[in-house]
Amino acid sequence: TAGDVAVPVDTKRGRVPTNPERSWEPERVQLMAQGLQLREHGYRTDHGILYFAGSKTRVEVPFAPELEARTLRLLDEARAAATATLLPDPLEDSPKCNGCSLSGICLPDETLALRQVPPVPEADGHAAVRRLYPAREDALPLYVQEQGAKVGKRGEVLVVSKGEEELGRAKLKDVSQLVLLGNVSVSAQTIQLLCEASIPVVHLSRGHWFYGVTQGITLRNAYDRAAQFRAASDPSRTLPFARAIVAAKGANQRTLLLRNASPRADTEVAEMATLLRKVEHLPDLGALLGIEGAIAAKYFSRFAAMLRPRDFDAEWDFRSRNRRPPRDPVNALLSFGYAMLAKECTVALLSEGLDPWWGLFHQPRHGRPALALDLMEEFRPVVVDSAVLTAINTGMVSTGDFVRSKAACVLNERGRKAFIRAYEARLDQLVTHPLFDYRCSWRSVIRLQARLLARWLRGDVPAYVGMTTR
Predict the structure, then answer these.
(1) Which of 114, 133, 152 delimits the end of a domain?
(2) Helix (H, G, I), strand (E, B) or coil at 166
(3) Does 284 share its domain with 172?
(4) Domain count, the chain
(5) In percent, how much of the chain has pLDDT > 90?
């Protein structure tokens, strides 16, 4: 500045573009907006400077009338978009989406593909969809199960301690969730830091009961929740959604048996296929619940055929599914895994601004995250059941890793730690999406399905499509 004259300067990390203007329009518009603010405060300004650090070059941008008019139009459009109740249509095959920090939320290619019923394939038979978000997430959950431990902070680092002993620490940027199992406390300052960083705190009991989530005010999207509540009271929407998740869950259960129990489970696999063909024609949610139970009964009747522990032990004998509480080691692993998956789906739904307690297939009940249960159905076989098979068949968990009573069987501390490793390894494993034909982790797929569910609730796509494996 010099007197009442000011020149805004904006620094860019990259190099000077090679186009005739030697800058991109968003950069010029941003600089013009800064110039307009300076004028509002009484300064005279007729140009700005873009400094490109990559090439150590200054580029002068004149504040021409055309640039000012363009900036004012874009400001009006931005204000209109901020007050709109509907999202704008996604860009089609736009190069602007590459590298955009919001492309994983916007999902332009996925949205456009799902608007085609069925999605229009490329020459190789798959939908033309780019994966515009990382295949794996950089941040991971931090689990704390040491009873009596406390989580505090030092700057941007989480510190876990017990008494005077430090048990571990993790940088805030590397943490996606803080998961507490049992009697673990968190300081008020740490909770505030986590809320500010939009990192949820998940509470589980030592018996693996999922209590809930503490998190900051992340999304204030009342429109998505309103759309969710409208859909939940509309049978023309709840029924197709329920059919999709029951079909996806049953297909994934059948695939797991085909991979791990054939030919011993061939009869059940064929019977499950027959039941799955009926799903699309069932008239109501009650009938869907019945066929879901029938498919599950066939599946769990042959679940033991997939168990091949290295050291055979009669305690791995699995006869049927039991819960609340589980009464044998296999069911204890399944119940713990499902609680972990419920918290994963709850966090994913909360991040999308949806209400995890108000379901469309599972009916709302006090203390039950019904929509999270809806979302997790298709992931039970391919995430939790698969992790249980890996933990048992590779010897990660042994029959000595459980605490037993007359009424229940639960994992001890060593067993929980071992199974969490198996569960997290499964979430981190890459899988090819059957519709979009790109690879991403199971954790990313759960987030993707939550976002696509929100898109369907808003009416951006015509149907919710469940995730199935080949």
Answers:
(1) 133
(2) strand
(3) no
(4) 4
(5) 48
Q: In angstroms, rounded to a whole number, what is the distance separating the alpha carbons of residues 46 and 63?
A: 5
Instruction: Residue 127: give the domain boundaries.
Output: 85-133
In sequence order, what DSSP letters do the residues of 208-272 get, joined into one string? --EEEEE-------HHHHHHHHHHHT-HHHHHHHHHHHHHHHHHHHHHHHHHHTTTTTHHHHHHH
Same domain, 263 and 364: yes
Final residue before a domain boundary, out of 159, 192, 214: 214
The reply to whether 232 and 322 lie within a common domain is yes
Tell me the pairing of strands 57-62 and 47-52: antiparallel
Tell me how crowded residue 163 is: count the other CB atoms within 10 A of its CB. 9
- pLDDT, tens only, 270-329: 999 999 999 999 888 989 999 999 999 999 988 888 888 666 666 677 777 887 888 888
Q: How confident is the model at residue 88 (pLDDT cuts 50, 70, 90)?
A: confident
State the pTM of this model.
0.81
Dig out the tokens for 341 from the structure.
């998956």
Selection from 202, 206, 149 nearest residue 336 by Cα: 206
Q: What is the CATH number of the domain that holds 368?
A: 1.20.120.920
